[in-house]
Amino acid sequence: MVIGRRSALVPHAVLIAGIVIVLFPIYVAFVASSLRLEQILDAPMTLLPGSRLLANYRDALAAGTAKTSGMAVGAMMLNSAVMALAIALGKIAISLPSAYAVVFFRFPLRRVCFWAIFVTLMLPVEVRIIPTYKIASDLSLIDTYGGLTLPLVASATATLLFRQFFLTIPDELVEAAKIDGAGPLRFFIDTVIPLSRTNIAALFVILFIYGWNQYLWPLLVTNTPAMTTIVIGIRQMIGNGDSLTDWQLVMATTILAMLPPVAVVLLMQRWFVRGLVESEK
Q: Which pTM value belongs to this model?
């Protein structure tokens, strides 16, 4: 028993050290968000929270900064939330039926269709950015939620993951559904989707964070402050050259920007872990 406890000390120590390394910058940002600007610029900065915590967060949420044309952080977070939810739900809504069709339907060139979807993994947004922007511009999607989300909705990765799971569904289950008179749509809704709940939850968490953290595409497709996302807003808050940066508001905005992804992970943690580790349903 003693030997077992000693052998666990090293991995626990490594785990604690890793947590400290990851959380220390976040703690520094939190402390900076509670200080006045002159306290932050006074090196070395204190590591104890200050008295401006609520005031700084209130200023960030309500007014933002002049560098973001006065766009409130709350409005930017709303834009990011709409974008992240639309991308996550859209990718799942498209990937589920496409993977279902590839696995359960027998049609000409079925395997070619799957590989055509799979090949798009080699064409991320950064590679096709110019034609994608041209199409969005021709369809008048600039400075719209449609422009922010539609070019990022299709997902070959999600289709591949759903396909691999659907292949594990036993043929006996399909035959039983046919005997009960269930058609393809009913089998998909009543059987396949309930079996895929944990996979859907795991993908939703990953895709929500993916959509929330988007930088390059929102930077190109939005021109007005009203459509600014939180990631773009944080970058705009940081001054260039001789302009003074309100670091207390930047740090407060950074902490606020972390809250929605963290909340999604915590709320769906059980489903997320099950979706990643379960191999049989």
A: 0.86
